[in-house]
Amino acid sequence: MLTRKFMTVREVANLTRVSEATVRHWIKEGELRAINVGREFRIIPRDFEGFLERHATRAARVPDDDRDKTDGLTTQDPSGPPPSATAASGRSLPRQKGVAAANAREEGTQARKKAKASGSRPTRTAT
Questions:
Q1: 104 in a domain, yes or no?
Q2: Would you say the pTM of this structure is higher than 0.70?
Q3: Which helix (DSSP H) or strand (DSSP E) does residue 77 occupy?
Q4: I want to staple 41 with a disulfide (CB 3.0 to 4.6 A). Which of 34, 65, 105, 117 is the partner?
Q5: Is 80 within a domain?
Q6: Long-range Cβ contacts of 56-61 (<8 Å, 24+ apart)
Q7: What is the pLDDT of residues 27-64, one digit of tens each?
């Protein structure tokens, strides 16, 4: 006899605080595994937990023997911010914009200054 408990689309939506349509979209796109039962879907809790793990932004922070002096915790994710980029509160400092974004802003600023000096209005270019 099957003793496995299934979750409904509504339960997953409530847990993640998104709409039911969003959960159905995840299922349709193959991001969230589900079982089609008639006209409805059922999600195995293990599959939902896997979905959450795959969509986590970074690994969970856990205490470690080699504690970081700034916040007393280290991350399991070695690609995270270096310890010097972490504030004393344990929160990451804002990430700097990429070089391309900085260059684009600089080009826009220069174009506006040039246009102002010549008395014309700058035109936007399609990106």
A1: no
A2: no
A3: none
A4: 34
A5: no
A6: 61/90
A7: 999 999 999 999 999 999 999 999 999 988 876 666 66
